[in-house]
Amino acid sequence: MSTATEFVRENTRVAPVPFVPELVLHQAEEPIELWERTEAAGAEQPPPFWAFAWAGGQALARHVLDHPELVEGRDVLDLATGSGLVAIAAAKAGARSVTANDIDPLSLAATQANAGANRVRVTLSEEDLLDRGYDEAGVILAGDVFYSREMAGKVLPFLRRAAGRGALVLVGDPGRAYLPVEGMVLREAYDVPVNEALESVPMRRTSVWQAVFTYR
Description:
The chain is of the alpha/beta class.
């Protein structure tokens, strides 16, 4: 077992996802305490996005499971996979292949552990795909990727290229400040239970969008 996998297992517990209870994840209970542990383990670490079921990912996973025809028999990329929740939902819904992509090794360790807990298979990718694109997938799923101006500036061109070549691009987002709603069509909205310590509220209105903008 790798050091990253050990860290994930030691600092989380397996529990159902609030809005997608048919799936389980290794989840942490105390976000600040866990972040401090990741930083104490070595060099500066990104926030432990992989340890929580974020609103956008929950909504997108719910939407995919409720509409399996979106991914069934298709090659899927889950961009910035975090915990792997959306990738796992796509695999459960019958995708031909699912690639879970993230540049955080702890995220990929959590995704692998979570895929095993849900008895599905996903392929892990640690490559930064935002510059080169990913033409191998006919479906691009992106939950909670517009949380900062910097991230939005990187993700938006990637999603535009994917939509422009004809890929189905779905985004789950709870109204983050940098979500570019121009060029997107609302598919569905949900009231999603969230971690109050992270979101300051117990529930967030969260939408699933389909990107229809073309590459410019």
